[in-house]
Structures are given as structure tokens and as C-alpha cells.
Amino acid sequence: MKPKPESVDMAALDQAVRLVTEVCERALNGDLEARVPLISGSERATRIRTAINGLLDHVDAFVREAGAASAAASRDGSTGGS
Amino acid sequence: MRATEVRPTGVERTFGENELIVSKTDPRGVITYANDVFLRVSALPEAQTVGSPHNLIRHPDMPRAVFKLLWDTLEQRREIFAYVLNLAADGAHYWVFAHVTPSFDRAGRLLGYHSNRRRPAQSSVTAIREVYRRLLEEERRQSRTPDAVAAGIAALQRMLDERGVTYDELVWQITDGSGR
């Protein structure tokens, strides 16, 4: 019998799906701090982790930058600046 | 601690215009998350990065006054934009334009800090290099660290007074290209 590397991969993928789901649910509830932790054993699991975390990083950055921009706009407005 | 052992090679590294370097720290400045771009540009493995203090990537040519300003601002629960020169584990260096913000939970408790960095324009790097060169010059006249910090802060304040701007205004002038 050949060894079945696929079964190892499936366990890693299962774990990845669980972790990604948890992080997405937290983000959905407004917690943009959540990130998928290190997953080993599967290249595909690593890829989905990187993709989800990258997506969250961009959303997180956008929310923070938009917050800074609107704060700056309201400061300028209140002082009559440009 | 480790960063002090890495000798800068003078090799400049850069990253994509649309890439973000992201890290998160706990309230003490210990790294809890670093994204793939952070790890690649800093030449660091993830296992060695998470759990390390953020000064892991500190470059010796960064004025102490800038970090003092950064931490003082964050401690007031305010955000800061700053140009930062970082040192990769392989001795290369890279400039970033950082937006550092405190993270709070819903009850308003501090969870930690978040830093996202974009690639600065070359003209902005040229402008900030000159500002930091002057701060470093003042800091390096002092032998004690607290004196160096104070000298750097004083030099920064003089520079702002000369130009009649606040720190934030200086940063945005440099970013918009009118700070040269």
C-alpha cells in the first residue's frame, strides 16, 4: 500500500477551514484584530491563511486611515482651515 | 535586543506600491502579528518575530526623538504618522511611511498597537532623511540616552518652530511634496 499523504493534507485543510471561519466570524462582528494563526502541513492552508490575513490587513488599514482622514477633516472644519 | 547585533549593510530594500507592511503589538510593544510583507521585507521568520519586542527592526540611524514622540503620542491614545527607517535581519534597510494606531476593545480598554506602512515616495525619503540627519547630529553629541532623547526632541521642536508648523503638518508637507 502506498502511504496516503492526502489524509495529512485533509487534516490541515480542515483545521484551516475552522480557523478561517472563526476569524471571519469575529471580523463580521466588528473585531478586525483577529488574524488566522500559523497553520502547518499544507501549502493550500498556508495560502488561504495568507489571503484572509491580507484581506483583513487591507480592511483594517482602510478603516484606520479613513478614521484619521475624517478626524482631520472635522478638525479643519472646526478651525475654518483649508 | 537582536537588532543591535545586526550590522547595516547599506543595501536598500523596497516593496510594492500597493503592498502594506503590517504588524500588531501588545500594549508593551511585543509583536503579536506580522504579515507576510513584514516578514519578507524584514528577512525574518515568523516564529522568531512573533513574541519579540518591536525594536527587533530598529535601525541605528533612526533618531531616538522620533520613537519618543511616537510612544508619547500612543500613550495619549492618539494615532501618529511617521517616516521610519527599519533594519532587516540581513542588514538591509527600508523606509516606510507608518500609520500607528492604538487598538481598543468595545469597553475602550487598550488591546495593543497596530502599525501599517506604505512605501514612501523617493522625494519624501530625501526630505525626511535631512530632518533626521539634523536630529541625529544633536543626539550623538550626548553620551547618555536620556540626554540624547531630550536633545533630539529639542532639535525637532526648533525645526518645527523655524518652519512654523506642527509635527503633523511637517509630516504631511513632506508627504505631499511641499516639505523640501
Automatic annotation (TrEMBL), chain A:
Source organism, top-level taxon: Bacteria
Record's protein name: HAMP domain-containing protein
Origin species: Actinoplanes xinjiangensis
Source species taxonomy: Bacteria, Bacillati, Actinomycetota, Actinomycetes, Micromonosporales
TrEMBL record, chain B:
GO biological process, one term: regulation of DNA-templated transcription
Domain of life according to the entry: Bacteria
Gene3D superfamilies referenced in this protein's UniProt entry, alphabetically: PAS domain
Coiled coil: none
Positions of the PAS fold domain: 25-113
Protein name: PAS domain S-box-containing protein
Organism of derivation: Actinoplanes xinjiangensis
